[in-house]
Amino acid sequence: MISLIRVTAENFDRLEQRILAIEKVSFPSPWTSEAFREEVQRSFSSLWVLQDREDLVGYICFWYMARELHLMNIAVHPERRGEGLGRMLLEKMIVVGIREGAECALLEVRPSNSPARDLYKKAGFREIGRRAKYYRDTDEDAILMALQFNTSGDAGPRRSRSII
Fold first, then answer.
1. What are the residue ranges spanned by the domains of the chain?
2. Which residue in 108, 127, 134, 140 is the catalytic one?
3. What is the pTM for the complete model shown?
4. Which CATH architecture has domain 2-148?
5. Tens of pLDDT along 84-121?
6. In the annotation, is 108 catalytic?
7. From residue 133, how far is each of 10, 36, 103, 109 by CA, in Å?
8. 88 Cβ contact list (under 8 Å, min separation 6)
9. Where are the alpha helices (H) located in the chain, listed in sequence order?
10. Is 135 a catalytic residue?
């Protein structure tokens, strides 16, 4: 059974090593334990893990401020990629954001990360610009992508145009 669990100061120590294990196999410059711990302490940050029975298989970290979501970090264990788990994590971010009143979601992605770019495009994100030499470890630019939520004044629930 797959479940999404919010990471808090109370459960971080129990989840920390499993989050870091996925982080280290997913990125050339992985976040440290301290970086994740700081995210858990920030009032505007949300960190969620995706668990399949007892196995932690992915996580997402995002900020909500000024009516915007900003994806900070997302990863799925390499052995579990291609199963739609990244999409589940993105959907969680969007649902939380819409519930909080977000109007859009933003993210940066490496041009060389084709699987992530494809995931974001399928979720409805569109390229809106570039950030030159954004990734310090490789001097690679970042593609800036955005997803605009329906902010019409209708009485129905606000929904993303793409994945909700």
1. 2-148
2. 108
3. 0.89
4. 3-Layer(aba) Sandwich (3.40)
5. 999 999 999 999 999 999 999 999 999 999 999 999 99
6. yes
7. 37, 24, 28, 12
8. 2, 4, 50, 58
9. 12-26, 33-41, 85-100, 114-122
10. no
